[in-house]
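To close the section, here is one more complete example, presented without commentary so you can practise reading it yourself. The ligand is coenzyme A.
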Amino acid sequence: MSRSFTFPVRAPTRRVLIRPAGWGDIEGVARVTVDTWGQTYREILPQAYLQQMRYAASESQRSRMMHAQGVHHFVAVEPTAGEVVGFASCGPTRNGGGGVPSEIYELYVQNGFQGRGIGRRLFRAARDRLAGDGHEAMIVWVLSDNPNRGFYPRMGGWRRSKKIIRVGGAAVEEIAYTWRLDRA
Ligand SMILES: CC(C)(COP(=O)(O)OP(=O)(O)OC[C@H]1O[C@@H](n2cnc3c(N)ncnc32)[C@H](O)[C@@H]1OP(=O)(O)O)[C@@H](O)C(=O)NCCC(=O)NCCS
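Output:
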């Protein structure tokens, strides 16, 4: 008697895609911004400030940012639903930057997608873009109380300085990490 074997068919796992953001991504980026702020800064920033954050307001702010000269956005897109699950933005340094010419402004990965290497890939996309633009160094400012700030030294950042900023009426401390960039 001949026996036939069937091998278990496993659905191929498609990798989250990292690509430059387009105008069609604004809604997804706004959603990730509002959701991750609510989750990450719950214990750090005033509740009232986090609760008043709205997708629509975040979308119009994002649209202005995407028009700004030299500013780049990268998105992480989940391949099955095509949903934005993370993003990074970067460009020329804001607020002086203490002599460092470029900056990663934001880097957020949606809850449920963290810890899979997406943050590292977004970080590298932003870093390589800033290097390609000819910047010799870059900076990231992160809230000192952010439990995720250990990610930046893991990416090779050097702790540089601190400052106090006001967010939603509260005074909070930020720490800067810096990197030298090799020209592409
Ligand atoms: C911080 C964040 C961007 C990291 O992205 P991620 O996709 O979860 O991280 P990755 O899986 O790419 O991790 C890459 C490396 O960093 C390390 N890492 C990740 N999060 C870390 C943390 N909170 N503390 C220390 N190391 C961390 C990982 O262990 C991994 O190390 P490895 O070299 O041993 O592999 C993401 O968790 C996030 O968006 N968190 C919420 C929002 C936030 O705090 N953003 C930063 C605001 S400035």
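Once you have examined the tokens, check your reading against these statements. The mean pLDDT is 92. Strands lie at 17-20, 72-78, 83-92, 102-109, 137-143, 158-167, 170-180.
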